[in-house]
Write a structure and sequence with these properties.
Elements (H helix, E strand, L loop, with lengths): L3 H14 L1 E4 L5 H17 L14 E4 L19 H7 L5 E10 L25 E7 L11 E2 L19 E2 L7 E5 L4 E2 L9 E9 L9 H4 L2 H4 L4 H6 L18 H7 L16
Antiparallel strand pairs: 1-7, 2-3, 3-9, 4-7, 4-9, 5-6, 5-8
Length: 275
């Protein structure tokens, strides 16, 4: 577990400038394993760049990673990163999305944006989103390190899409993690090198905000039943502040307890008679 002083330091940086970087958070063996598996998934599912400027014409994105095996289950509950996220949001926070982002050579800079700009709340407002980027390669200004506008999380609006802004590159070494307030203006950088910039975007939202990826339908319940208790909560099988998300005044974890250790009977099977 991280020292509370370290967590407070990172939270102070996020409060002041909108972001912080946790150095050497991920061990090299884990990085190597993730990189190899992402390459496997890209080949197995013939994943190619999306045809739009936001996702990138030269960027490979693999979504819903929790559905692809146990190696990804350790990411949302990372003992050094999650306490910082909980400090920005609270312990009732949720996994909003878990995906990989590989910026290929020749990619141009992503338009500057805020991750919470689709949420219809006047700005500035309390944090609703806290996102993280895991560096699986070195992040440099040349290879597409995330561009940031420090302090913009306090702005009273959102950036104009496609407009030019003065920004800095969040350069960090392989194994580091960038954490930022979802109101911070930012975007992926341009890759002018001959190698990929590979990262994992582990994104969280407040427990009262709808998740970006629908975790309850995107992840089969029999998979979630095998998650550790904290990860079950993070993907939405919990009740926020004793009320939000209940099922007949019971926790959604009761569904998982009813099926743990057995497979669901089929695509149309119901669990309602099990709780």
């Amino acid at each position: 577990m991280p020292e509370m002083g370290d967590v407070r330091t990172h939270l102070a940086e996020i409060d002041e400038q909108g972001y912080t970087i946790v150095e050497a958070a991920i061990d090299p063996a884990t990085i190597d394993d993730l990189v190899v598996d992402l390459e496997r998934l890209e080949a197995a599912y013939a994943i190619s760049p999306s045809p739009n400027s936001f996702e990138g014409h030269q960027t490979i994105r693999i979504y819903n990673l929790l559905a692809y095996g146990p190696r990804y289950e350790a990411i949302p509950v990372h003992p050094t990163i999650l306490p910082v996220v909980e400090g920005v949001l609270d312990r009732g926070c949720l996994v909003s999305s878990l995906s990989s982002i590989s910026i290929l050579p020749g990619e141009v800079a992503q338009p500057i944006h805020a991750d919470d700009q689709l949420i219809p709340l006047p700005k500035p407002h309390v944090p609703t989103v806290c996102n993280t980027m895991w560096a699986l390669t070195d992040f440099t200004e040349a290879n597409g390190a995330t561009r940031l506008i420090p302090g913009s999380h306090r702005a009273d609006g959102n950036p104009v899409y496609g407009a030019e802004f003065d920004s800095i590159a969040a350069e960090m070494s392989r194994g580091s993690v960038l954490i930022w307030n979802g109101s911070l203006w930012h975007g992926g950088g341009a890759n002018t090198t001959d190698a990929r910039r590979v990262g994992i975007a582990m994104n969280y939202c407040a427990g009262w905000v709808r998740q970006q990826e629908n975790q309850q339908l995107g992840l089969p319940a029999e998979i979630v039943a095998g998650f550790e208790p904290r990860l079950r909560e993070l993907v939405g099988y919990a009740v926020y502040n004793g009320l939000i998300g209940h099922i007949n005044k019971r926790s959604p974890t009761d569904i998982l307890d009813a099926i743990e250790g057995r497979a669901i009977g089929g695509p149309n099977a119901t669990l309602w008679d099990k709780i």
